[in-house]
Each structure stands twice: as structure tokens, then as C-alpha cells.
Amino acid sequence: MSRIQDARRAMAPLPLRWLLPDTGEDRKLLPLDADSVDTLVVSLHPHLLREFSNSPYEAAALLWLVLLNAEQHHPAGKAKVRNFQLGFLAAPAYFLTPGEVLEEVDRLEARGVVERVGDSGVQLNPAAVRLLEYREVPARRRLEWNAERAAWAGSAMPAFPSA
């Protein structure tokens, strides 16, 4: 996305509020660390990823809020991202100024993905996104993940050096 497109999008009216129906479809489950059973899992409404494909900055801001929530409510170390899909979603956040992040949070609020709490806080809408412990993931999905890990012949995701 070019900066001209970003500016046009910023000048456009806020998006309509999404109604996130319970469609019976499985939620998109993305573990923060795909190789660990002691990790947190981001649970997204099935329509969100499709909608965010045209709004990468909103997706990045939402994931940033999810990670802040993880750091606040869970022991240190569990909020470390070692999942390529989540890293890809979060990447645009590194190119946003704090003001642009707040603008994206306003857009998320207009869509109904987050709700304001007090003057400066937001709360995640559980119909849109939830943060789960690994043990809260349905057993069927955990078995599928284990089978996928056992069948994977490729290299493991590299560990990035810490600063």
C-alpha cells in the first residue's frame, strides 16, 4: 500500500460497524508459538482475516492490542510470537507512528472489534478476537496441530536473536 492510498483511506469516513454473526464456522486459531504447548492462542472470528486483507494496518493494530493483553494478563514469556502468520500480520505495526496506531484503534472501535474502556483504554470484543490458553483449544484442533508437526519435513522456524 502506498502512502497516497494510506492518506486517502485516512480521510475516508470511518467504516461501518461489523455484525459478527455466529456462523457455526470454526474460529481461526493461531498459536503465538507453534512449537510449544505452553503458549497462548489467538482466536479470531472467521470473517476477520478476510476483512483485514484490505486493511493490514488495522490487523496489525489489533494484533498489537492482543499482545499487550497477553503481556498484561499472562506470565512473562508466553506472549512471545514465533508464528509466521502472526508475525506477518504484525509487521505493518513497525511502520506506524503512535498517532497512526491510535487512528487504527479508532477504526477498530468503529467496526466493533474493540470497545472503549474509560478515557484511554480499550477492551477486545470477545466475539471478534479472544486470547486462549493452549489447553482451552478444542482437543480435535490440538490433535490436528500435533499431526501437522509430526508430518512436517521442513526446517523449524529460526529463533531470532534477542536484543
What are the salient characteristics of this protein?
163 residues; three-stranded antiparallel beta sheet; two-stranded antiparallel sheet
How much is the average pLDDT? 79
Q: Percent helix among the residues? A: 40-55%
Counted by DSSP, the helix tally is 6
- Largest sheet data: 3 strands, antiparallel
Low-confidence stretches: none
Structural class: alpha+beta
Number of strands: 5
Q: SSE order, as H and E?
A: HEEHHHHEEEH
Rg on CA atoms, Å? 17 Å
Strand order of the largest sheet: 1-2-5
Amino- and carboxy-terminal Cα gap? 29 Å
> What is the overall silhouette?
globular
Strand percent estimate: 5-15%
Q: Can you describe what's shown?
A:
The chain is an alpha+beta fold and 163 residues long. Helices cover 40% and strands 13% of the residues. It has a three-stranded antiparallel sheet, with helices on one face. The chain is globular, with a radius of gyration of 17 Å. The mean pLDDT is 79.
